[in-house]
Automatic annotation (TrEMBL):
CDD domains hit by this protein: alcohol_DH_class_III
Family according to the record: Belongs to the zinc-containing alcohol dehydrogenase family. Class-III subfamily.
Gene Ontology CC terms: cytosol
PROSITE patterns (UniProt xref): ADH_ZINC
Descriptive protein name: S-(hydroxymethyl)glutathione dehydrogenase
Organism: Salipiger profundus
GO molecular function: alcohol dehydrogenase (NAD+) activity; S-(hydroxymethyl)glutathione dehydrogenase (NAD+) activity; S-(hydroxymethyl)glutathione dehydrogenase (NADP+) activity; zinc ion binding
Higher taxonomy: Bacteria, Pseudomonadati, Pseudomonadota, Alphaproteobacteria, Rhodobacterales
Alcohol dehydrogenase-like C-terminal domain span: 198-335
Length: 375
């Protein structure tokens, strides 16, 4: 079949909207009509050329929602008409990682996924002249139709709006999951969140759900304050307006009983390795836990004095908020439909596929939280 897609032809270039060929689903695969997709900073990271795994030409996008149109041979858990959210972290429930009970990082298809291919080592997308187009994060939601492995689709209730629940495909689950799955934040804690964009706001929302007492937001852009306060931020620091962001945060947590200060939990949602260091070092001596969410460019490395860890701080990372996609994503959709989590105010812009490059401009200008393309 043919479908319309925004194709990343070369690193650093705007996406090009075009008709592409899409082969039908092979064994274990599913054809999905994508109804809506969010633009995550990770798409921009790869588009820009900063991703060491970036491949071109490819169809980016990994934060989608849609409907199953056709299933390949052997598919048993999905049928045409089912509503689904694509999973860049699949859940096969059979590999060593899935069965470990210790991680959400299913390894069943990671190798081919990283090479922009379906599990059989081939691509379903091609240009009209036959040039192959790579898949992206196993999802490629910047196409109106895509083919995905069955294990990489979460079936969700069919009355949930696509233009909102697409955000559960990455940002919402990553932010809230980082708090509840990865950090395990307890009621009454203090926390600092670096980067108040599409991920950081969901960390804040998760911290409020977890019963955090003090939620300190950090961003270079003052305009991000207002929305963050609505989601539960209690204090704000703009690092460009203070001498030492770490000292500011530590001072905000000092009490007579605990004059040393430092947050119980900190989160990097910027992808900047210097910020990651600040996030670790503003956490409390003896027990502070700092979670890296941001994705850093090729070649970037983190550093700190080992003394920071010797004195009890813990540095952790999280992918997709530690969520097991097929099990947890339907629950996030239920929470949204029951009003337990908020999504609507964070979808600041709605675009057509033809306007997708404007979505990346809004991201760069700091004007959007999530821009969503509706097909
Ligand atoms: P975004 O562009 O919406 O938000 C980033 C925010 O960080 C912006 O508000 C920006 O002003 C702020 N910022 C940038 N540099 C800063 C600095 N030095 N100090 C303080 N604030 C700064 O991006 P997003 O979609 O929220 O993504 C955030 C990061 O999370 C990206 O690196 C993205 O690739 C990554 N990410 C990781 C996962 C995962 O599973 N680990 C999932 C989704 C996104
Ligand atoms: N390709 C990058 C790594 C990118 C990365 O870490 N991706 C996250 C999800 S970001 C979603 O917005 C992830 O899931 N990582 C686990 C994995 O297996 O990729 C690089 O640096 O090579
Ligand atoms: Zn993402």
């Amino acid at each position: 079949m043919r479908t319309r897609a925004a194709v990343a032809l070369e690193a650093g270039k705007p996406l090009e909207i075009m008709e592409v060929n899409l082969e039908g689903p092979k064994a274990g695969e599913v054809l999905v009509e994508i109804k809506a997709t969010g633009l995550c900073h990770t798409d921009e990271f790869t588009r820009s050329g900063a991703d060491p795994e970036g491949l071109f030409p490819s169809i980016l996008g990994h934060e989608g929602a849609g409907v199953v149109l056709e299933v390949g041979e052997g598919v048993t858990t999905l049928k045409p008409g089912d509503h689904v959210i694509p999973l860049y972290t699949p859940e096969c429930r059979e590999c060593a990682s899935c069965l470990s009970g210790k991680t959400n990082l299913c390894t069943a298809i990671r190798n081919t996924q990283g090479q922009g291919l379906m599990p059989d080592g081939t691509t379903r997308f091609s240009m009209l002249d036959g040039t192959p187009i790579y898949h992206y994060m196993g999802c490629s939601t910047f196409a109106n139709h895509t083919v995905m492995p069955e294990i990489a689709l979460a079936k969700v209730r069919d009355d949930a709006p696509f233009d909102k629940i697409c955000y559960i495909g990455c940002g919402v689950t990553t932010g809230i999951g980082a708090v509840i799955n990865t950090a395990g934040v307890e009621i009454g804690s203090t926390a600092a969140v670096f980067g108040l964009g599409g991920i950081g706001l969901n960390v804040i929302q998760g911290l409020r759900m977890a019963g955090c007492d003090k939620i300190i937001g950090v961003d270079l852009n003052d305009d991000k304050q207002e929305m963050a306060r609505k989601f539960g931020m209690t204090h704000f620091v703009n690092p460009s307006k203070v001498d030492d962001v770490k000292a500011e945060i530590i001072n905000l947590t000092k009490t007579d009983f605990d004059p040393m200060g430092g947050v119980d939990y900190s989160f990097d949602a910027t992808g900047n390795v210097k910020v990651m260091r600040d996030a670790l070092e503003c956490s409390h001596r003896g027990w502070g836990v700092s979670v890296i969410i941001g994705v850093a460019p090729a070649g970037a490395e983190i550093s700190t004095r080992p003394f920071q860890l010797v004195t009890g701080r813990v540095w952790k990372g999280t992918a997709f908020g530690g969520a097991k996609g097929r099990t947890d994503v339907p629950k996030f959709v239920e929470w949204y439909m029951d009003g337990k989590i908020e999504i609507d105010p964070m979808i600041t812009h709605k675009l057509t596929l033809d306007e997708i490059n404007h979505g990346f401009e809004l991201m760069h200008e700091g004007k959007s939280i999530r821009a969503v393309v509706e097909y």
